[in-house]
Amino acid sequence: xxxxxxxxxxxxxxxxxxxxxxxxxxxxxxxxxxxxxxxxxxxxxxxxxxxxxxxxxxxxxxxxxxxxxxxxxxxxxxxxxxxxxxxxxxxxxxxxxxxxxxxxxxxxxxxxxxxxxxxxxxxxxxxxxxxxxxxxxxxxxxxxxxxxxxxxxxxxxxxxxxxxxxxxxxxxxxxxxxxxxxxxxxxxxxxxxxxxxxxxxxxxxxxxxxxxxxxxxxxxxxxxxxxxxxxxxxxxxxxxxxxxxxxxxxxxxxxxxxxxxxxxxxxxxxxxxxxxxxxxxxxxxxxxxxxxxxxxxxxxxxxxxxxxxxxxxxxxxxxxxxxxxxxxxxxxxxxxx
Length: 337
What we know:
globular
């Protein structure tokens, strides 16, 4: 009988499958143009194809424990997005300082004014919208890092915006971006959002999938094929005038391990270009173990110098009462195009 222990890693150490992304993108574009062109007809007179470049760079200074005292370039992202006709769009996105260079390579087809289909490699929606360009503070919350990582994968999605509701539903490989499938079963993620009043977003999300896991059992590494990997969560986001309030709870199951966590953010613009931020976060990587959870407290300041420049300062500390005396001070300059 297999006795499960500590999960050592998720999935095999596969390289980025660059050829797969290129083939997927080429096939998707060819099918959409050749197969759906007659249905949607030719572009109207006067339509011009759009190609919009963009990008951002993050430069950080980090000071903290273990003699941390360094400058870092954490992101150098470049993308091009556009539309080939009124119903067909695309996005190609790379990060030049990461080993996994490719971020996005997908095509969008507009099925209705409020509905589009997406296919390729993309960031799927689970909970709050997530972009390192738009974080309330420098680092993402522990629970999102621990349970979601970077929510990108290869698959297909439907994205709808029928007011006052919005939804994102996707079928994914389930092995993360740029990585070959490690089992034949697909993962499904769905998020439903309600915009009930101005500035208020309420959402619920679910992710159901499987992964191969490496598990340490009696000193030996064994692979659990098709192990359970489920997530569910709920969030609220209110942003109006000078006030920002955000909270999210996520629970997950990895094989036979139960994980959960939450965070809350309070932000206020003391001036139109200056925002103060306070965040409290908690993450427990194994709820069956006593005293396994960890709190992180963050205080920060954001200066929106202009649309192309944001300076963020953040100081994170652990919970002294639980014996966590960790701390980290970070200064970040973000240049955005």
